[in-house]
Specification:
With 164 residues, the chain is an all-alpha fold. Helix content is 67%, strand content 0%. It has a single domain, classed as Up-down Bundle (Four Helix Bundle (Hemerythrin (Met), subunit A)), CATH 1.20.120. Helix 2 packs antiparallel against helix 3, helix 2 runs antiparallel to helix 7 and helix 3 runs parallel beside helix 7.
Length: 164
């Protein structure tokens, strides 16, 4: 019987991860459209943790799709070193000099990651929280998903040309 992990690894593609990541981002956007902010400075907290989880998972899958295309093995991306750590994934992307982020964008992702990595959005943890603004995360996601998809498509064209 074939190793299940090896089967998953051989059937997982960068574009597959990208598409699922886009679906998570879109799910976040759909819920956000149903829960519009009350004021420009006061976000609507309805389903806020669910929406933060969805956008966090979208970033995780986007970053993993890029790193998989760069040759990082899926087993490594699924390991504890990277796992659900958005910042560890983003730092690895920086090693390839792809998609530079501003300090503000890094701080925004870092704040999201603090709760996402700890699974705070999935398990209720008491105490005060300072969650990032979802609208800013969605805006950052728009930029990174567009850049990531453009880059992945370019890499696919290069591979097709090399095969010819």
């Amino acid at each position: 019987m074939e190793n299940k992990s090896k089967t998953i690894d051989s059937r997982t593609s960068p574009f597959g991860l990208l598409i699922i990541g886009k679906d998570f981002k879109r799910a976040c956007e759909i819920i956000s459209e149903k829960c519009p902010d009350k004021h420009s400075s006061l976000p609507n907290t309805d389903l806020y943790k669910v929406r933060l989880y969805l956008i966090g998972h979208a970033f995780e899958l986007l970053f993993k799709s890029i790193l998989l295309q760069c040759g990082v093995a899926l087993a490594v991306l699924r390991s504890k070193k990277f796992g659900h750590d958005i910042i560890a994934l983003e730092n690895k992307i920086e090693e390839f000099a792809l998609f530079p982020l501003s300090e503000t964008e890094k701080a925004l992702l870092s704040l999201l990651n603090e709760y996402y990595k700890a699974k705070d959005f999935e398990y209720h943890v008491r105490g005060a929280k300072q969650y990032p603004y979802l609208s800013e995360l969605i805006h950052l996601g728009d930029r990174l998903f567009a850049a990531g998809e453009k880059w992945l498509r370019g890499q696919s064209v290069k591979k097709a040309i090399i095969k010819l």
